[in-house]
């Protein structure tokens, strides 16, 4: 089991768009195993590859007892109906801010055998799918906040003992 250290806000890997996976090999299997091991911890709803320092398009999720992963995910559908509720991030530990997200989302990608995978959900699953896909595009959830919430989030981040 390889529980990987989570990169924190301020690390450039979190603000860099990831590259699609093209090699379905042992290295990829190892990364996916690490993502699954890392997400399988209390309080972890999702872990994107950049959060463990790897710049590839892959993430794992752990929502309501459903644990899985998606390689080369693309957000292909989001509902017009919105949810605005508390959201946190392992890369921004201890801070939660109301963040607008679509109530329902669908992600399509592939598995380790390069076979198609579709993951969809509402509520927390929709939030996790959007949040993790954002990470793969170099977006951290605080960037999605309205200007007033973002200023407050950045103030709290700068004052955090983990922020460098």
From TrEMBL:
Binds 1 Fe(2+) ion. Fe cation binds at residues 89, 131, 135. It comes from the Bacteria. InterPro entries: Peptide_deformylase (IPR023635), Peptide_deformylase_sf (IPR036821). SUPFAM superfamilies: Peptide deformylase. It catalyses: N-terminal N-formyl-L-methionyl-[peptide] + H2O = N-terminal L-methionyl-[peptide] + formate. Gene3D superfamilies: Peptide deformylase (3.90.45.10). Its cofactor is Fe(2+). The active site is at 132. Keywords: Hydrolase, Iron, Metal-binding, Protein biosynthesis. Its EC number is 3.5.1.88. CDD domains: Pep_deformylase. PANTHER family: PEPTIDE DEFORMYLASE, PEPTIDE DEFORMYLASE, MITOCHONDRIAL. Belongs to the polypeptide deformylase family. Removes the formyl group from the N-terminal Met of newly synthesized proteins. Requires at least a dipeptide for an efficient rate of reaction. N-terminal L-methionine is a prerequisite for activity but the enzyme has broad specificity at other positions. This is Peptide deformylase. It comes from Saccharopolyspora taberi. The gene is def_1.
